[in-house]
Amino acid sequence: MPDLSVKYMGLDLKNPVIVSSSSLTQTTDGVKRCADGGASAVVLKSLFEEQISSETYKLEGAAQLYSHPEAVDYVRRMGMLLGPKEYLKLIENAKKYVDIPVIASLNCVSPKWWSDYAKEIEAAGADALELNIAVMPGTISGTSEKVEKLYINIVNGIRGAIGLPVAVKIGPYFTFLTGIAEGLSKAGADALVLFNRFYQLDIDVNSLSLKAGYRFSTPAEINVPLRWAAILYSRVGCDMSASTGVHDGDGAVKMLLAGVNAVQVCSTLFLNGIEQISRILERIEEWMKEQKFDGIDDFRGKLSQAENDRPEYYERLQYIKALTGIE
Ligand SMILES: Cc1cc2nc3c(=O)[nH]c(=O)nc-3n(C[C@H](O)[C@H](O)[C@H](O)COP(=O)(O)O)c2cc1C
Question: How far is residue 204 from each of residues 142, 198, 210, 211, 228, measured CA to CA in Å?
Answer without folding.
Answer: 32, 19, 6, 6, 33
